[in-house]
């Protein structure tokens, strides 16, 4: 492996890992709050990507402006979904039934996208799609950098929100011990609803970031859900920093392993990491006190 | 599940009415559901087809269905075959290889169809061709270009397109290797999807260039679900090969090209299968298309006489111009029709062998040009080579069919 190729792949891996980190953050949040396995998370990503594409096609404006609308709408949709659907599931079988429920939602979104926008593969045309910056002889694609910055910014905001605001404390209390949270006066149902909304809002941002540099089609979400699920297990279910670190490490590994192994085998890194985690440290490698209890 | 279309049903009802009014029905084959028995001179010629109208191949499957329907409509408008109307009986095999076998069994044995047309894709062509072979039926198919189709020992199979996958790039390989020593490309990089068709096209060109002394620097295979091409692009960019060959379908080709542009890799030749002929392609890669090459079995602008008519009538019937799947299906219809007209029969039994023999010995004029076949049913031609020139995709090779001059080396993207 030559030096320049290594540097180039490392940079591409970091950029990819940043996007994975944001996409996985929402997924781990749902599980943290309610033990919900949200199969439809990546379907919402693709939905947001389609909305960004559609917004760009109709208005000609930068697709990132669509966030002004999609983030609040997704937040409300998440809140509604939690209050009206997920909270109706029996607590005893919640995790399992949530797989069925969200699987159905994923199929509905996929079907609706196919129905409205057809199965034709779409791509946003950006004036800077093929541009790149030169860094020590390696090329940093501008769109990937923009997506990375968007992801990093969203993740940082999410972290600050959870760490330093009153709502964040209430949400973390709900995650850690719902009963105790209720005892100190937190409305855990409402908080869980907001938490779910927050998760979907990250999907809106993640999907828009994805749409900048991807060709999208309705069934694309199936390619994303597997790696994302693996990332949150490796990172420790419910831990946002864990998900971010695991996403970065796996993203970089996937990029670097492609050089000696080729694309087919490099993909398996997610599943190898998943098996290793389940065998040696089922609660996840980072954070993840939660998973120990379940 | 039987898929019958209301248009067909109306046509069938009319024909049935005419038949009952005009003649006493002769004995019909078992299981016929529309009163359209075999035998009488005015009865329609029934053609059985099974297509993947649902499941994995439903998009191209529906394209093939439209092509067959357009063919039947155009033939009937001009008085039918041998003076008889043609009627399609199309079943849905759900993209399932077991299903396609039972579909053709029942079409041939129970419904007693007079002729069959092939389904879509190698995976379904092979098992259905075997059924047709057992019944001694002529089997012309619109899709199934991979090598394995022709290695099964079928004597009744004909592929209704100009070339098998390996030969798609023949004109390009010949052209590049005929360049003077100083201009000839010396190195090439290949990235192909793990798919028999995509690999067939890319490896056909790769092997011919390698034989001609071009060094292959990168040879990557990626699984069909790959969406991130940045590292594959990084490997190709680092090799700085003169030629880049993409064994692509659509999204992979687009994503790979953009990833290559992002890394500022500038090849002298960029050849991608399938993707560049897609109507969305130019917009998807930001109109940086100049000089990108793609082989094509059919072009809406090709001047073969029946092609002009096909494009015009198809557009009239469906409201939009046909694509390659539709054209390949139409070609299948033309090939069978030519044999039927020449031999003068269309029924099960001895007639089928006569049709097969006739096709082995003759050349048929179609919308993709004149076609002839070897013993295994491989068409003997090569694909046209198209290149993006001035914002449009045009035929550049071979010389006698070209619409524009070949651009070499490719301008920067």
From TrEMBL, chain A:
Location (main, coarse): membrane
Keywords: Amino-acid transport, Cell membrane, Membrane, Transmembrane, Transmembrane helix, Transport
TM annotation in the entry: 6-29, 36-55, 67-86, 98-118, 138-162, 192-212, 224-252, 259-280
Protein topology in the membrane: Multi-pass membrane protein
One Gene Ontology biological process: amino acid transport
Molecular function terms, GO-annotated: transmembrane transporter activity
Keyword Cell membrane: yes
Classification via InterPro entries: ABC_transp_permease (IPR001851), BCAA_transport_permease (IPR052157)
Family annotation (CDD domains): TM_PBP1_LivH_like (cd06582)
Protein family per UniProt: Belongs to the binding-protein-dependent transport system permease family. LivHM subfamily.
Protein name: Branched-chain amino acid ABC transporter permease
Gene source species: Agromyces agglutinans
